[in-house]
Amino acid sequence: MSSSTDRGRRLLPLLPNHPLGRSAITCKYRCGDACAHEAPNTSGNAYFGDVVGEVVRRRGLLKAGAVLAVAGAGVGLVGAGTAAAAPEVEADRDLGGGRRRDGLNFTPVAPNTEDRVVTPEGYESAVVIRWGDPVLPGAPAFDFDRQTPAAQAKQFGYNNDFCGLVPLNHWNRWLMVSNHEYTTEEFLFKNWDAANPTREQTEIAWAAHGLSVVLVERDHRSGKLVPKVDRHYNRRITATSEFRVTGPAAGSQYLKTSADPTGTKVLGTLNNCAGGVTPWGTILSGEENFNQYFANAGSVTDPVQKARLARYGLSGAASTRKWERFDKRFDVAQEPNEPNRFGWVVEIDPLDPNSTPVKHTALGRFKHEGANVIIARDGRVVAYMGDDERFDYMYKFVSDERYKPGNSRYAREHNKKLLDRGTLYVARFSGDSPVAEIDGTGELPADGEFDGTGQWIPLASGNRSFVDGFTAEEVYVFTRQAADKAGATKMDRPEDVEPNPRNRRVYAALTNNTDRGKAGKEGPTEPNPRVNNRHGHVLELEERRGDNTALTFSWKLLLVCGDPASPDTYFGGYDKTQVSPISCPDNVAFDSHGNLWISTDGNALKSNDGLFAVPVEGRYRGRVKQFLTVPKGAETCGPVVQDEFVLVSVQHPGEIDGASAANPLSHWPDGGTSQPRPAVVVAWKKDKGRICG
Predict the structure, then answer these.
(1) Bias regions of kind Basic and acidic residues — which residues (predicted)?
(2) Residue among 432, 390, 637, 655 nearest 536 (CA)
(3) Which of 87, 167, 339, 598 has minimal Cβ neighbours within 10 Å of its Cβ?
(4) How many angstroms separate the CA atoms of 630 and 118, rounded?
């Protein structure tokens, strides 16, 4: 499935598609058609930049270019400047190569609609593991027409999203952890009857959710990454695995159910999207669109509970998959607190296969895309998070205690508790340009950048709430409503939010928001400057004085995505004739030189999703280059960028309108007449050289 550029340019006919480049069937099963419903955030939060603008107009206190510093929720005055440019690095001589130690020396892949993975000239790729491949000893060979719950519980799960590597104490051996976000039942079973699913089909789907832990080794002769069925480390975590609830909301009245009156033990994890690898060698995984799995929220009449359910997108009667027919915990009418037990960041320790994974309540409950950690200069750990919904928010958590270096049992056990005690914050942004200059067209303001300052508003710390009218318990369990009350800034679907270990800046993928500017919805703001935002943007945030525990920050938009020929796009100030088109940024990662890598979800430019690289420093800052594309209907997820190889998760290949298991329109990765199968793919240089060398 490796490629050359000339073959990558050969296009296949485009098939009917969802408005944002995603098929209707994907939207149905992945997020419960979230974009087809009203956004759950109906709060009237005023954008801070508009407040500033109104003060300026009314009082004439500011001259052009000044920024009003306003205190909020006990936070100090905003004092951070814009991000300073780093020293220029030696640059590539052109788009395709040049001699450079820390460059991105590959020829960009052209946009295409091929039904395969397309990589640059001189690179090749291979499947590492696919849905149904064995993970645990005794797993049978995959047989699409003879699936069973017992088999799936030992096999690689469905629709893998996040991928992370935890190194073992052996050269070129890792534990690879993959999230299995959701199941698409119409592609899982040829005889799927949406009105009458069987118990066996439901239990197969339960087993296909969750996570897989797989030992992988690199074969230096071929360059491939090879999975091993390891008896000690390999593991499957599913929708019925046991989790411990930890942190300040453990045992909360809102988490207790008839099956768990303690409110401290949950069965399963659902809709696990992105995640991160911690400095202590564990995996953080975000529970995202959990609302769609629960039925009969429409039967709730209590106004307080009804508002809480609505803020998380729970409504209606029967669920799409109808799991409530086989387990009452998915029926809100019978178990009203069960939905509150999802929407958390979970932590898994792949190095301890006997450990019980946990759900961290101190990090708040919302539609977590993921969580990513950096060690602050004072030793505390800071986790950055995004709530993947239109008009929702960006968050961070700062631990009370400090990280202990080393891999001793004592240090690891200490570090695994760091995310249980600390302070949870939500972000408020302001722009530094006059409101009139942010007109929704994407045209840059007079200062030449979308940029400004912001502050982190504290929500809760331990048993203390900073939000009027909310107990700390309510802040953690109903975080969205607490953030509404605190006056957070509405963003355009903040997905992956990750700190760059080289420059300590934070990069956020804001995927899209076609509702921005619609009647009754918030209009353009400087951090979200386009109405009908189909293509998304990437935000760069720098904490004050480079301190990740700071309460104030500066920010700027690194990328305003879309067709470079369109006037509403921006590529860090780089020449737009020399960049790859990019649409709908989703996940981000970094290579060892600090270059930013971006995977896309729902390319609205009518070509396949892909993986892109972009320098964030020096003269090539903003130069986007497409590294690979995934097959038709697929989303690019979970990028892992090592010096010698790149991993991507190819999620939902072949999910194209009109397709199904009975009528597959993709046969990737096995070819012939086979069913499409989600998989992890590795790409490497044919000469075994460095990816970015």
Answers:
(1) 515-524
(2) 390
(3) 87
(4) 7
Q: Which residue has the higher pLDDT, 564 or 687?
A: 564
Handedness of CA 464, 481, 558, 692 (dihedral sign): positive
Kindly report each contact of residues 63-68 with a partner whose C-beta sits within 8 Å and lies 24 or more positions away, as own/partner.
Answer: 64/434, 65/432, 65/447, 66/432, 67/430, 67/432, 67/452, 67/453, 68/430
| Distances in whole angstroms, Cα of residue 158 to Cα of each of 328, 349, 574 | 24, 21, 39
pLDDT, mean of residues 348-376:
98
Q: How many residues does the chain have?
A: 693
**Whether 411 contacts 280, CB under 8 Å:** yes
Over the Cα atoms of the chain, what is R_g?
A: 24
- Residue in the block written with tokens 């590539």: 92
Q: Which residues pair with 246 in a beta bridge?
A: 360
pLDDT at 462: 98
pLDDT in the model for residue 65 = 34
Please report how many Cα atoms fall inside a 13 Å half-sphere around the Cα of residue 369, on the Cβ side: 31
Neighbouring residues of 507: CB distance < 8 A, sequence distance ≥ 6: 497, 498, 499, 500, 538, 539, 540, 541, 558, 588, 596, 616
Please report the pLDDT score of residue 43 as a whole number. Answer: 86
Sequence letter at residue 604: A
CA atoms within 13 A on the CB side of 390: 25
The residue type found at 571 is: F
Peptide bond into 134 cis (omega under 30): no
What are the strands, taking DSSP E only, across 369-408? 372-375, 380-386, 390-392, 394-402
With residue 126 as reference, give the H or E element that holds it.
Answer: strand 123-130
